[in-house]
Amino acid sequence: MHIVYPAIVSALLFSIGVYGVLARRNTILVLMSVELMLNAVNINLVAFDVWLGDRLHSGQVLTLFVIVIAAAEVGLGLAIVLALFRNRQTVDIDHLRTLAEPNDHAPVDGALTPARVGVGSSAGGTARAHSGQYGPTGGEKGAPPVETGRSGTDLDDRAGRGQGPADQTAAGTPRGEVAAAGTLKGEVAAAGPKGEVAAIGASEGEADDAPEGRQAKDAGPEPGKDASEGGTGRASGEGRPENTDRRGGTA
Amino acid sequence: MTEAAPFLPPTTQEVVFLLLGAVAVGTALLVVTTRQLVHAALWLVVCFGALAGGYLVLTAEFVAWVQVLIYVGAIVVLMLFGIMLTRAPIGRSPDLDSGNRAVATVVALATAGILVTVVIDGFGTAYSPLKPGAGAAEQLGASVFSTWVLPFEALSVLLLAALIGAIVLSRTDIRGAPTRSRSPNGSVPGVASSPDRDTIGPSPRDSGQSTTTTPSIQGPEATKPTEGRPHNSSTDDDGGQ
Q: Which intervals of the chain form a coiled coil (chain B) (predicted)?
């Protein structure tokens, strides 16, 4: 047996596992891909054990150990996934952004913003998380840079204290179906007490005809963490607009 | 470790191994590309079975049976349980892939290219005749319980720890110290406490209760929600609906 055959099979399996870990969204599928990578390692261990003719069978014994560790890893991983599902009702990795630093990726995403927002406004519901996430930079796009910096920190502060209806507007907007019902209220709420929000939102709105896109950008200057966390609930279209207009009314 | 065996008339073992390897790679591709979650788990069974066959061809019998028992018998069943318990959609679901598929493809192709190139360059001529029975349970057991007995025992302790950890994580009526120690912003007790409770110390009764209470709390206190909290509660009541 040429050793290169199992080695190539192992290399291919490993890269397939890498693809799965990077491209999949469901946590259980990511765990499956990790299993594929571990199996690739196992083939390598067995093949090289055979090649070296090890009297102690180090390779095969280590393969057994890897299998046992993989079993432990899957058990713990699934327990974590289930705990996550119990608390968040989702296992999509893209939606679990609680630990993300909101201010870190805001300037980075600025380059991507027009395309993303365009996709979000046209695709409606599918971009529910992204429109909120990239919203802040969408808002900044229309304003001069100095102004954006100032208003960004200002709003950051405000959202940190949790006041101001821009918070709630952002919570309502990331999904497309809200836009139909809540457009007027959302706009009013965003434009009411905050001058800079209204200005940015208006300049964005002229650039873009679609009401959903406009509202998503109205939500823009609110820091993205809030909206993207809000996006973790996927089916929550009906709960949010009421919040939005209630808060718009109180403010 | 004899060198320079000819490649072109492949031996029967090599042909069988290559066929099994093709099955394994093909089903692994299906695992990472299929649109149906349950099918991914079932393709994973085929992939692991083909790999067990590959181990058999490589004369690692004991590893092959352990692979069948643990991977096919335990791990995939555990995955299926996970799929069912997370109420994954049965059937076609369009959003199993995240947005970075292109990047993932590039990275995976680069990894495959580098690994295959290096492996062919390094072990292109390595050849080893297969001796039947070299990886039987007798040899492997003697090796495990003489030379590798300490790692073996450490591994059993690790399994025990993982078992206890999984039980603690998945039981809902255990409230450990972390439940109370992690209360990040207790400035607004009425709002902050109830999502906090169902975030960390989850029990079905609690989450049900908080889904009913938090929206009503959210209304009057709308001027001061802390940043992550209302969304936690709202995601909870999304799932409840």
A: none
Residues near B83 by Cβ (< 8 Å), separated by ≥ 6?
Answer: A28, B37, B38, B41
Long-range contacts made by residues B15-21, C-beta under 8 angstroms, separation at least 24? B16/B53, B16/B57, B17/A1, B17/A5, B17/A6, B17/A9, B17/B54, B17/B57, B17/B58, B18/A5, B20/B50, B20/B51, B20/B53, B20/B54, B20/B57, B21/A5, B21/A6, B21/A8, B21/A9, B21/B50, B21/B54
Please spell the DSSP secondary structure of B125-190, one letter per residue: TBB-PPPTTTT-HHHHHHHHTTTSHHHHHHHHHHHHHHHHHHHHHH-SS---HHHHH----TTSHH
* CA distance from start to end of chain B: 64
What is d(CA A66, CA A52) in angstroms, rounded to the nearest whole number? 19
Cα torsion A61, A65, A71, A74: sign: negative
Cα separation of the two ends of chain A: 76
HSE-CB for B33 with a 13 A CA cutoff: 10
B239, burial (CB in 10 Å: exposed 0-12, middle 13-18, buried 19+): buried
C-alpha distance from B174 to closest chain A C-alpha (Å) = 12
Q: A214-228, pLDDT tens digit by residue? A: 444 444 444 444 444
Quote the pLDDT of residue B185.
47
Q: How many residues does chain B have?
A: 241
What is the ipTM for the molecules in this complex?
Answer: 0.72
Q: What pLDDT does A196 receive? A: 41
Q: 3-class SS at B97?
A: strand
A-chain residues near B63 (CB < 8 A):
42, 46, 60, 63-64, 67
* Residues of B with Cβ-Cβ distance to A47 under 8 angstroms: 58
Q: Which amino acid is at B8?
A: L
Query: Residue B86 and residue A91: Cβ atoms within 8 Å?
Result: yes
Model pLDDT for residues A204-217, shown as the tens digit of each residue:
434 344 444 344 44
* Below-50 pLDDT ranges, chain B: 1, 179-241
In angstroms, the CA A163 to CA B226 distance is 9
| Cβ-based contacts of B232 with chain A (< 8 Å) | 87-88, 229
Contact A16, A10 (CB under 8 A): no
